[in-house]
User: What shape does this take?
Amino acid sequence: MASTYDCADPDQRAEGLAAAARAVRAGRQVVLPTDTVYGIGCDAFSASAVRGLLNAKQRGPDMPVPVLVGSWTTIDGLVQGVPKTARDLIEAFWPGGLSLVLRHAPSLKWDLGSTKGTVMLRMPLHPVALELLRDVGPMGVSSANVSGQPPASSAAQAREQLGDKVAVYLDGGPSGEPIASTVIDLTGDDPRVLREGAVSSAEVAEVLGREVLPA
Assistant: This one.
């Protein structure tokens, strides 16, 4: 039976974060609030946990699972190299609604789906998410919904869709407007917008001082 914890209550928040950390380390899935929409997450380095996440969403590996991190420096060990464009965007928009696609470090043994050697990384601007990420490390996190259904903007909406396929629900209150993160691909010679979201292309271009190609 899945457990829900009200993170507005300090005692429940502490208990819920501890339960979520135990679940993640045990290879199970949890639902957590982020600054965009609610996410379903698991240990990014556990292939079986990622498969469980995709099964809960009723989704195949053709849409790779993004990775959330709890600090700027975490990505240094996850990617092949951090270009200046990535550093500049991280400094400007992290934590926040900007996801970066980079080549992942070839030494990493993870299976996030059909990534073609890349990984999508983001640092969310939400205290509950950041506390969990800083405890357990990088997590594979996708929107907390069944594929094809609207993304959940509350823990209750996530539970309606995912039920007991998730071990722990961290209720951080309503997420507000369910706006997804902007996704910028930095694997080519020029930055490219893969998805327009919380951060505008114009804001990205202003930070980089160069044109950002459309998808």
User: Anything to note?
Assistant: The longest strand covers residues 98-103. The radius of gyration is 16 Å.
